[in-house]
Specification:
It contains 13 helices and 15 strands. The chain has helices at residues 2-11, 29-37, 45-57, 105-123, 141-147, 149-153, 185-203, 215-226, 240-246, 264-271, 275-281, 286-300, 348-368, and strands spanning 14-18, 41-43, 71-73, 77-79, 88-93, 96-101, 128-137, 161-170, 173-182, 207-210, 230-234, 255-260, 304-310, 325-332, 335-342.
Length: 369
């Protein structure tokens, strides 16, 4: 920690440290900063009173260890923690500034909004920065990298304007990130809009959303906008798909029901899957996925129904149907479509996650047709 902080101070005018401000033995950020900056830790009764008041408000006694959080570096300005107990600190170091901030996002974010960002804006009033993140699902990172190369290789920089591109893969989702920095807010908006248009021009429907949007929020918005109702029939995902849908506030406007038909008997009883279909083709088959989706559509009275049935592993696979084999059904009043995906890497949770995201992205594209 000491080496990292020293290195950061050598290259940067502003250093932000997140985490390690708690009351336990392994929370060492205060002590580390004190040693590196050569500033002693000073006890603050005012901060301790505030911490004690938080415990009193919830009817719990304060542990003695929490008193550690009442120490701030000499010359530091405390940042009030509106959520937790650990205060942040702003520490001037000659012409530089060090911020000590709590780690939990629920405590970090309010401090950033109320104190840190206003401080930085005041310190650098003529620097503007805007970021756009485009989300893509189901394509290899290398393929997207190749496709967007003409946009990235173009010289978007100009006097006073700098453009930074990035690409990141996680959970089968590719994020294409564009940051524009300039001395004019109008300039960065204009350049970012031009780059956005260029990226959409070559990626098109591969892009499912932007910035804070998720597949489930995008699908939910489409369903709500078109006045459509969705129901689900899940086997290998075990309710994960329904959980994603219902994470979105207001999902009751477009989500009717979710059935977890894990056993063959439940597929027959709740969805009307034929016994002969299961016997001939098996539970993991497009034939079963078709009957699951159609049965869900008919019995729910929804406009759309999704079905997912597969082998999430680590056991249960065979040579014909290895672990990672997942069959999907997408049904509407216009008909039903089935397909199979082979998720040949990752453990059980990853296969379930990719299956749920595949179902959502397939529905997104189907609704938009």
């Amino acid at each position: 920690m000491e080496h990292a902080l020293k290195d950061a101070l050598e290259r940067s005018a502003v250093v932000l440290c997140s985490g390690g401000l708690g009351p336990t033995f392994d929370d060492l950020t205060r002590e580390c900063a004190s040693k590196v900056l050569k500033k002693p830790l000073i006890f603050s009764q005012k901060i301790l009173d505030r911490i004690q008041a938080k415990f009193k408000a919830v009817g719990r006694p304060m542990a003695a260890e929490n008193a550690r959080q009442a120490y701030v570096l000499k010359g530091a300005s405390p940042i009030i923690n509106s959520v937790g107990t650990a205060p942040g600190q702003i520490i001037p170091v000659k012409a530089k500034t060090v911020f000590l901030l709590p780690g939990p996002p629920s405590e970090l974010a309010p401090m950033m909004d109320s104190t840190v960002l206003p401080f930085l804006r005041k310190k650098s009033p003529n620097v503007f920065s805007k970021t756009l993140v485009l989300h893509i699902f189901g394509y290899p990172e290398s393929e997207i990298d190749e496709v967007i190369e003409p946009v990235i290789s173009r010289n978007w920089n100009s006097p006073g304007v700098a453009v930074i591109f990035g690409i990141l893969a996680h959970r089968s989702i590719i994020d294409v990130k564009v940051t524009v920095q300039s001395k004019s807010s109008a300039a960065d908006r204009k350049v970012l809009a031009d780059i956005r248009k260029a990226l959409y021009g070559i990626l098109g429907d591969k892009i499912y959303g932007e910035d804070e949007e998720t597949l489930e929020s995008v699908v939910g918005s489409l369903l709500k906008k078109k006045g459509l109702i969705l129901s689900l029939a899940e086997s290998c995902t075990g309710g994960l798909l329904a959980s994603k849908i219902t994470r979105i506030a207001g999902s009751s406007d477009y989500f009717h029901r979710g059935l977890i038909t894990y056993s063959d008997a439940s597929k027959i009883d709740l969805l009307g899957v034929k016994h002969q279909t299961l016997k001939k083709f098996g539970a993991v088959s497009e034939e079963t996925a078709r009957e699951m989706a159609l049965g869900c559509l008919k019995r729910s009275g929804s406009n759309w129904a999704l079905s997912v049935t597969g082998i999430a592993g680590p056991s249960g696979g065979s040579k014909e149907k290895p672990v990672g084999t997942v069959c999907f059904g997408v049904a509407s009043r216009a008909g039903v479509k089935t397909f199979t995906k082979h998720f040949n890497y990752g453990g059980r949770a990853q296969i379930q996650e990719r299956a749920a995201l595949t179902a959502l992205d397939t529905l997104r594209k189907a609704i938009r047709l």
